[in-house]
Structures are given as C-alpha cells and as structure tokens.
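Exercise 7.
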Amino acid sequence: MPTGIHKKIRLAETGQLPSVIVRLSSGWVVAGDVQPLRGYCMILADPVTRDFNALSEEERVRYALDMGRVGDALLQVLGAYRINYETWGNLDPALHTHIVPRYKDEPDAQRILPPRQAYDWGAGRPFDLAVDGEWTEALAEALRPWKSPGHL
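Solution. The predicted structure, written as tokens, is:
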C-alpha cells in the first residue's frame, strides 16, 4: 500500500515536489511541510523500505552516513548548535527520518524537550520556497559532494 512517503518520492523523482533539497545515495532530502524550527527536514529512503531494520548492513551504513551528513550541513549552514534525529514510521510505515536543527536562542523550557513536545507542529509555519529557498539552496550546496549522480 503506497504511503505518503511513496507519494513524496514519486513527486521528487518527477521534479514536482517544491520542498526537495537534494537526492543522496540513500534517499531524498526534503524540507518539512511545516517549519516550526527553521531547517526542519527529512530524509526519505529510496528505494522505499518498511524500516531501518529491513535494510542490509551496507544500506544501513549508507542511510546513517547520509543522515549525519544532513545534520552536519545544517550545523554549518544554519548555525544550529545541535541536531535531533527522529525515525518513527508508525503512521507512515516507510523509512524516513526527521532531522531537526536546534538553536541556543530557543526558550529554555522548549530547548530541552524533543521537538514534537516543544513545538506545535499543527501551528507551524508552512514550508514556503520564497521564505525557505535560501537555506534549502545552501543546504543542497553543502551536500553537493554526496549528491547522487544524475539527480538534481
């Protein structure tokens, strides 16, 4: 059964997903549909797989490396001080990881909580290429050395 992740990947492959940042060897890096924290993005495993445990050892290494590379690039591009990584897949059972930059200027009470507890995702600002284009382009450039050949 196709999931929302399947649909996003299909749109990314055809150039119809405005939130695409870059295609890495393990999957697509896309900006979050909402931006409760500037730079929130996800990596969507491609080919789609059920979860991290369904990957071969080689695929796990590639996915984990790409995930860390996105985090490193967010630290560099946005000046975040920490990156939170969340891989759930309960609602949308296809491997994807939420990558959330955290900032020192967040209120103390929020900064110490996981992002989904600290912020109201439903009230988050929607992704807007006009607003988010600068950081998504900078992130794509920072990830260029690991870009999958033949994509974006």
